[in-house]
Amino acid sequence: MQFVRHLEIHQEEETHPEAPAQHPEAPTQHPEAPAQHPEAPAQHPEAPAPHPEAPVQHAEAPTQHAAQKRVTWSIVYLGMMVGAFFWGGLSDRAGRRQILLISLSVNGFFAFLSSFVQGYSMFLFCRMVSGFGIGGAVPIVFSFFAEVLAREKRGEHLSWLCMFWMIGGIYASAMAWAIIPHYGQTLGGEG
Predict the structure, then answer these.
(1) Residues in domain Major facilitator superfamily (MFS) profile (predicted)?
(2) 95 assigned to some structural domain
(3) Number of independent structural domains in the chain
(4) Fewest beta carbons less than 10 Å away: which of 20, 158, 168, 191?
């Protein structure tokens, strides 16, 4: 019976409007202050209030920016996927060396052009065509390299080629981490 009475008291405290909803030592909110969203971080009591004429930040901006970054990165891989099918089949018919030079030229030209375009859609187009050229270069390089290797060392040397390709990717990422935080905004014109 004592247990049932304890449950009744506990339920009464939860539903009673005058009962404190917080721990007794927790800071209370001023009665006239607006209610804070439950997922929003608590503001420091000494922090200044935002200026009434400050520009309003919309929640869609970071999401849209993140989506643009994902599209910018994935469009290159889309071009690579299509380019591998196109250039791979063409290199079997027209010769690997000639098609490798053409696909690398396509990659280089459109990668260079993408640094000068003004619009986002034109930038995406140039990056996709650049990826189309990369898609031809990668499988052709592996096939071309395998043709000139001795049979007993072919697997080892192809593994070395793959490894140095990954080391190059890590090196490029490390250089971006080193350069962009120091020079990224000044090079981008945002001062």
Answers:
(1) 1-191
(2) yes
(3) 2
(4) 191
